[in-house]
Write a structure and sequence with these properties.
Layout: H1 4-13, H2 28-31, H3 49-69, H4 71-74, H5 102-108, H6 113-117, H7 124-127, H8 135-156, H9 158-177, H10 189-205, H11 213-230, H12 239-255, H13 271-288, H14 291-313, E1 345-350, E2 353-358, E3 364-367, H15 374-384
Antiparallel strand pairs: 1-2, 2-3
Helix pairs in contact: 3-8, 8-9, 8-10, 8-11, 9-10, 9-12, 9-14, 10-11, 10-12, 12-14
């Protein structure tokens, strides 16, 4: 005769228990097995379309600038890499970064003090961050943007990085406008330094969640130094980099303080119990993380933005109060100078030759052509007067 107790026990043993349901965003590692302590946390993969769009725009603007420059025609074939035709570069003694002439940078939207104070062309504050002084500037800048920007966009999402990139570029343009002089300047590095400032803020405020702090700090310093050294060359503005870096740090302190949920090791009470408890704690921390720091950072950024904007609209020139400031943006060399002054040349045309003489130092040069634009005459005058 079948034992009823045995049947009851058999039914009990065959019962199946369903595991508790976890939130959809709960870390995948807590649903399976824990990793060993010290294993780097996985990145949150997401689209990097914001960085990609800005990179494509800047490449397109540079190509358009070189087509407008048309060295082969406007400089009568006196070009570097002349086999490129319309895309060939100005001679290295004119632009050591393999780029367009000074007048074409101005035509495409570079900053110069007279454009803001005399002609009130404030639209240049929006074109200035998308221009590059030359091919070298373009490659170094965009490689840095891709390296830093994709990392940040994967970690914190496209919206936040897009806001930081845009506002840092504009802040860099405002700071540059307070220091720019008679030589045209471009400032695409402002947005890059905004990303570097954001990376620094993330390393400081979320340092307890980072496992590779040393390598990230080394990368940040190398990119910062290399691009800042590039800013000592003609037409590249370093003040936009300083403004962008300050902006990026403050905006990063506002927008990216929330840490990512790290993986945790199981405890004696079980992986799921331990994970749920820490998950809830970290979600609460994300909601309430450092509100005072966020408010102070946002206030300082707003104050800086409003102050620099008012100063630019009033035409303030900080170089009038700071005699050494121009050397933050330029180091004198045999190939270029840091003196910002208006140059005047006397032009004489005879037969098929043109003679230009600098009225400041008496230097002159004879050119085997006469059909030349006024803008190009000014470019050559600047070269002769150096």
């Amino acid at each position: 005769m079948e034992n009823p107790m045995a049947a009851e026990n058999s039914e009990f043993i065959n019962m199946k228990f369903s595991p508790p349901k976890l939130p959809p965003e709960f870390p995948q590692a807590l649903k399976t097995t824990a990793r060993k302590s010290g294993t780097p946390r996985p990145r949150r993969r997401s689209d990097t379309w914001v960085v990609s769009v800005f990179v494509i725009i800047q490449i397109g603007v540079f190509i358009a600038t070189m087509l407008v420059n048309d060295c082969w025609t406007n400089s009568h074939g006196d070009c570097a890499f002349s086999f490129l035709g319309k895309l060939s570069f100005q001679p290295l003694h004119e632009n050591p970064l393999l780029g367009p002439s000074q007048s074409k940078l101005e035509e495409m939207g570079a900053l110069r003090r007279a454009f803001l104070t005399k002609y009130h062309q404030t639209w240049r504050l929006f074109t200035f961050p998308f221009l590059h002084a030359g091919l070298f500037h373009l490659l170094i800048n965009l490689c840095s943007v891709i390296y830093v920007g994709i990392h940040l966009e994967q970690e914190f999402g496209s919206l936040r990085i897009g806001i930081i990139y845009t506002l840092s570029a504009f802040m860099g343009a405002l700071v540059a406008a307070l220091f720019v002089q008679s030589t045209p300047a471009v400032g695409s590095s402002g947005a890059l330094y905004g990303l570097l400032g954001t990376l620094l803020a993330e390393l400081i405020w979320n340092r307890e969640f980072r496992n590779n702090k040393v390598s990230e700090i080394v990368s940040l310093v190398l990119i910062f130094v290399c691009n800042f050294i590039l800013g000592f060359l003609p037409y590249v503005d370093n003040f936009s980099s300083i403004g962008g870096f300050m902006s990026g740090f403050l905006l990063g302190s506002v927008l990216i303080l929330s840490p990512q949920l790290p993986q945790v090791a199981p405890s004696k009470g079980g992986l799921i119990d331990y994970g749920v408890k820490n998950y809830i704690k970290l979600k609460l921390k994300q909601k309430l993380d450092r509100p005072v720091l966020r408010i102070v950072s946002l206030f300082l950024f707003s104050l800086m933005l409003a102050g620099f904007l008012v100063a630019v609209l009033h035409g303030i020139n900080i170089n009038s109060y700071c005699t050494w400031c121009p050397y933050i943006d330029c180091i004198p060399s045999k190939s270029w100078h840091c003196k910002h002054r208006e140059t005047i040349c006397e032009t004489m045309v005879s037969n098929e030759h043109m003679t230009m003489t600098c009225m400041d130092n008496g230097n002159f040069r004879i050119f085997p052509f006469t059909n030349i634009s006024v803008a190009r005459v000014n470019d050559l005058c600047n070269l002769i007067c150096f």
